[in-house]
Design a protein that fits this description.
single chain; 220 residues; alpha+beta; 8-stranded antiparallel sheet; 4-stranded antiparallel sheet; 4 helices; 12 strands; 21% helix
Length: 220
């Protein structure tokens, strides 16, 4: 069973996709399939908390309907160890090589991140994320989303939508299938979400790991 990140392989993937990331529209991004060990993600799914678990912080309003774990301290030990690896040096080097953003810092608090799930009828309105860390003097530079949904069908919806700068057009839709990792830059105009309610079967949900990365400062 492989539960650890392969730093050398990740660096090869980053070098192969760096130009694609930089040239993507409507803002720098890339969707990469199968870059993480399946055993690792199977473990996450096996230990993924049920929707009625007390670990979840729930958001239900006009703009969103989702659940966040907001950290790892209440999660099973093995699941916490998986999350910690996304703040490790091998993964940070991978992101720096892929994006050209150096001096990246992981979020030890998993602020707004960790595990996410959105049940049937849930949605996430088109938005741009917060640009500064709430507890640390850091600038948010990257979003990383790891999708965990086996056998996810197109008709269920839940595509990650990337919109143009004036929010008049969806430029790209990304289906949230198992072991698909999406990386995109974070600015005031990186608008994204999935605005239409999910139509997945009752009792199922759109599951993901959400990760955010920072630097001490940023270009103006």
């Amino acid at each position: 069973m492989k539960l650890y990140l392969d730093g050398s392989r990740l660096m090869e993937i980053a070098a192969a996709h760096r130009a694609e990331y930089a040239a993507a529209t409507p803002f720098p991004h890339v969707a990469l399939d199968g870059i993480l060990p399946e055993d690792m993600l199977d473990l996450v799914l096996d230990q993924f908390p049920e929707m009625d678990s007390p670990v979840w912080t729930r958001y239900a309003n006009y703009n969103e309907g989702k659940l966040e774990s907001q950290g790892e301290e209440r999660l099973p030990d093995d699941l916490s160890l998986v999350l910690y690896q996304f703040n490790s040096a091998p993964f940070l080097r991978f992101l720096e090589e892929l994006t050209g953003i150096h001096g990246l810092i992981g979020d030890p608090y998993f602020t707004g991140g960790g595990l996410h799930q959105i049940p049937r009828d849930g949605r996430l309105g088109i938005h741009a994320d917060f640009s500064r860390h709430y507890q640390l003097p850091l600038e948010r530079r990257l979003n990383v989303l790891v999708y965990l949904n086996r056998d996810w069908k197109d008709e269920y919806g839940g595509h990650l939508e990337l919109w143009n700068r004036d929010m008049t057009e969806c430029v790209e839709k990304i289906l949230p299938v198992f072991n698909r990792t999406v990386v995109f830059s974070t600015t005031d105009w990186t608008f994204h979400g999935h605005p239409d309610p999910l139509t997945c079967p009752p009792g199922t949900s759109r599951k993901s790991i959400a990760l955010y990365y920072f630097t001490v400062d940023r270009p103006k």
